[in-house]
């Protein structure tokens, strides 16, 4: 019994007879091709037209279609002025300057429930790319996972979002690198009358004229999120619905609750050694050989493309929705106040914020995505009510009849690991001045590596 | 697949021992390479394993300690993890364990059985009665966590004593389900939103097993550190604190060769990774819409994983033996070291495929501009990608059927092998092989019995080592 003379040898399974599936796992095609969308429908998403009417983007072409271009390099100086961090980003090329530039995180996409969404995607840099619409569940080609269907040059993704809630989108190619380097953005499914409610009329050329309804609000002028908060009467304006059928064939506001203030948190961490040594987007791309499973190769470039340490992640810079956390490993950093997300990067919605600045007796919606590779443990200075996880509202029939929204008292930690999202409501009758404490816990050992403090100010 | 073919799939930690004679459905299920065992008989020993990589720069080998099945008749091949063990609540289990390594080892089913320390060269035989139901990580608890992480672990599954339900009280995986979990299992196959089969029922006419369930045992392997442990002074335990520190936190040195430190380089699901865990009918569920499955996730290692499944949200029905009062419906869940987590996957039609009502129900699909319903997505199903691409004489095209979706750790450093090789890490998936609820009855998509098996013509290739 020893390393050099073990009792048994366990062989790798053979790929003979299965070479096609094996090769597609790591070298999916078509590279640079433009596969046609199968089962195409006419898109009905009103958001691009509303954005154009706001003066935030060019006229949609094709109509009702969002554009994403990837990947685009972006260098951001670290808060301590020690390093340049390299980012890979999406770009919405239809936005007006300066918002058509690369941006981290990518522009937030909002889409009303029930419409046909078309996302026209162009890849460059390493020719193959995808967009995975995380939490959205369409057919495999529209799910954007290369090895399950295909990678792209250009492609128009199609789906119909069926559940209101918080999702995100990211490239699913060389994901340990591309996701870490910033190829992601938020994706929010909003109530079915949002955006439509802001359109006064449609012109013959397809452009629209707006009325006075705030963009993103419903026909009653209120912003709403899916929830069942019948047990939490502190949140006024909740609309219930059929206890069995839920939202089917009903009021577009069934099982929603209005909110006054929206906060968007995307916690993220970066390893600057990866940024230094693996900034080439081809890094460790394998390609199949003449005998897949036997003589496959990596791109033959032992320099930047040969970084074989993607198993070894050790964060040293942190961000909350793109705002740097000014602290080093082991420390505590507080992000500044006053971070408002521009409407151009927020599907036309005004006033969404990172740090929370609200009034007493306002309902605050908090959307929290962990885009870090580490786990977060968040402790709030106020009570919060969790109304949804992963775009699935708790307690909303029929699929939510097995669960329910729940209170997390102030000071009680919530664990959120990579790619999980929760939506929470906050409402205080008394002023609050404090911080949400976000502890980043290393996936390797669960030790705290940093605390980010996000200001929460609720004033009279 | 014929019964006699099962053993050729029994490599790779995917084999199961079914104790006693009370669960014939498990032996008949094509989802498990299951063999019957009247008693358990293990030898604690070691092995060198060829791990998955695309890279031909080295052999990608890793040293493990293993629980080797040493029953007298047709013992299962060597592997880490050890065989899945299926028992029924109330069974009496007789187990014999020999320690062939040179330090003390044991065999523990947490909360149920502890063999006690077994001296080098010694053999013990004991028996115990199974009192609990659910998902357990059997393991060597000595010199914690070294012996467990070195490979001495496996899945121990306890099914309830009563496996016949009624429409009002369907079988769940638990002796004492919560009202919420009981309602969930009652509703599968009986409600407008989940037409199809309940979990406890199969359908021989469609080759659908009952009690559909899959086991994803997560692990991380460090070839440098495992070899160091294997080479440590005979008869002495490798220092556990040193093991933990090296495994979790040995620093990267940019002047050292690639992967010179003791951080894990292989991230496996039931011993397999990449293609071998994804395109694998024993790990990746292959079922039709309306055939719900249970997925049992265990973490034998020391890293936290954040497991994301595409195509369906899943209900978290049990966490570390606690059946949930408030089962969340999620697409990602946190799996900490030693966690045992159960997911109920409803296997509903992917809900964001366009339909008339647009609220997540399997309603009438919209009609495409080409005049066909968008579900089943026949244009997509009939697409071959990459069409016309060859490696030598080998046609590399794949038909997009069955409908293929991944399941993977979203904390992506684990999606690697040897520090690169994206997609060769901790990944499996879920495939749709048809739909029980299409007009005209049950639909089965092309190729369902082939690569994506299991089925009468399953061709998932045998290990070259068997």
Please describe the topology of this protein.
The complex is a heterodimer of chains A (460) and B (466).
Chain A: E1 8-10, H1 19-26, H2 47-53, E2 65-77, E3 84-91, E4 106-112, E5 117-123, E6 132-134, H3 140-143, E7 154-159, E8 165-170, H4 175-178, E9 184-190, E10 199-202, E11 208-210, E12 223-226, E13 256-259, E14 261-270, H5 272-277, E15 286-287, E16 297-298, E17 317-320, E18 323-324, E19 332-334, E20 356-359, E21 364-370, E22 375-379, E23 384-389, E24 392-393, E25 406-408, E26 414-416, E27 421-426, E28 432-441, E29 448-459
Chain B: E1 15-19, H1 24-28, E2 33-37, E3 40-50, E4 61-69, E5 84-88, E6 92-99, E7 108-109, E8 113-114, E9 123-129, E10 134-139, H2 146-149, E11 153-159, H3 179-187, E12 213-221, H4 223-230, H5 240-249, E13 266-269, H6 275-278, E14 286-289, E15 293-299, E16 305-309, E17 314-319, E18 322-323, E19 329-330, E20 332-335, E21 340-345, H7 378-381, E22 384-385, E23 390-391, E24 394-395, E25 398-399, E26 403-409, E27 427-438, E28 441-444
Parallel strand pairs in B: 1-2, 1-5, 3-6, 5-11, 12-15, 14-27
Antiparallel strand pairs in B: 3-4, 6-9, 7-8, 10-11, 12-13, 15-21, 16-20, 16-26, 17-18, 17-19, 17-21, 22-25, 23-24, 26-27, 27-28
Walkthrough of the structure:
The complex is a heterodimer of chains A (460) and B (466). By secondary structure, chain A is mainly beta. Chain A has two domains: 17-217 and 273-312, Sandwich (Immunoglobulin-like), CATH 2.60.40; 261-270 and 339-459, Immunoglobulin-like, CATH 2.60.40. Chain A is 6% helix and 34% strand. Chain A is built from five helices and 29 strands. Chain A has helices at 19-26, 47-53, 140-143, 175-178, 272-277; strands at 8-10, 65-77, 84-91, 106-112, 117-123, 132-134, 154-159, 165-170, 184-190, 199-202, 208-210, 223-226, 256-259, 261-270, 286-287, 297-298, 317-320, 323-324, 332-334, 356-359, 364-370, 375-379, 384-389, 392-393, 406-408, 414-416, 421-426, 432-441, 448-459. In chain A, strands 14, 17, 18, 21, 23, 24, 25 and 27 form an eight-stranded mixed sheet that branches. In chain A, strands 19, 20, 22, 26, 28 and 29 form a six-stranded mixed sheet that branches. In chain A, strands 3-2-5-7 form a four-stranded mixed sheet. In chain A, a hairpin with a 5-residue loop joins strand 10 and strand 11 (208-210). Chain A is globular, with a radius of gyration of 23 Å. The model of chain A has no long low-confidence stretch (mean pLDDT 94). With 466 residues, chain B is mainly β. Chain B has one domain (3-345): Immunoglobulin-like (Sandwich). Chain B is 9% helix and 32% strand. In chain B, strands 12, 13, 15, 17, 18, 19 and 21 form a seven-stranded mixed sheet that branches. In chain B, strands 14, 16, 20, 26, 27 and 28 form a six-stranded mixed sheet that branches. The longest helix of chain B is centred in the middle third of the chain and has 10 residues, at 240-249. In chain B, 60% of the residues are buried. Chains A and B meet through strand 1, helix 1, helix 3, helix 4 and strand 16 of A and strand 3, strand 4, helix 3, helix 5 and helix 6 of B. Strand 1 of chain A pairs parallel with strand 3 (40-50) of chain B.
